[in-house]
Amino acid sequence: MELVAFDLDGTLLNRHQRLSNYTLETLEKLKAAGIFYTIATGRTHLAAMPCIAGHDFPNWQIFKNGVEWWEPQANQYRHRHLLNHDHIDDLLDAFAEHKITPFIFCLADDGSHQVYHAPLIGHLSDHIANELGNHKNMSLHPLTELTKHSKITNISALGHPDFIEKIVQESHKHDHLTAYSGGGIYNPDAHWIDVHHSNVCKGSALMELKQEFGAEKLIVFGDGDNDLSMFDQADEAFATGNALLHVKEAATEVIGHHDEDGVARYLRARYNL
Length: 273
Hints:
By secondary structure, the protein is α/β, with parallel strands linked by helices. Helix content is 33%, strand content 26%. It has helices at residues 8-12, 21-32, 45-48, 85-97, 122-132, 161-171, 202-212, 228-233, 245-250, 262-271; strands at residues 2-6, 36-39, 61-63, 68-71, 76-79, 103-107, 113-117, 138-142, 151-159, 177-183, 191-197, 217-222, 236-239, 253-254. The chain has a 6-stranded mixed sheet. A hairpin with a 5-residue loop joins strand 6 and strand 7. Helix 2 (21-32) runs parallel beside helix 10. It is globular. The model has no long low-confidence stretch (mean pLDDT 93).
């Protein structure tokens, strides 16, 4: 049995951050063919749901680069390697120094999601706050309410590329943190950053899932830096045509562009769908 895993942004999703009709039809064909497949994304579960609303991914799904898992049939979460307030104190100072609003995602005791944020600075942080505020299972809170006992899954933000890079470099000073950044897919003037515990990544999560379900091969599709860990673990790794150059160089093969159904077209050819 093969385990097939897809990144979302820049890979399975189109430029509208959605699954195209062609990709939706292809995923249904993949399901009917009995192929075991899932998603492995840097998005949270709640942030990914509008993007994949047209298809019911039936198996364990990997979010936040492996920190958060979701099983749709049982409505069940798993979480790996959470952070606490002490882990991120110094990094929050770097966000403040570069005038970028951090959004700290946490788990509440009742299983709901809480997001704590510093004062909103600029239209990018306004955009994030508005988007997060539309989720019924998520609540927004001022950063001053974050406690020492908060269960932190990750920190996310948008900002000027130069300042985002400085925060990435600051995160490298802490052994327990890892940070990914990128930009240009949807907003060429801003880069995103995602920070979480260094003991988890897409690659380790997928290897755990592969072992759990007894898959013999791991086949992955991606376009960015946070996909490299699953490229390293995979038997075959495919980069979309829009992927970063060093991601393409790490791939088994380069396929079509994410906004031209590159993944779906490859799947149809490979599995004769």
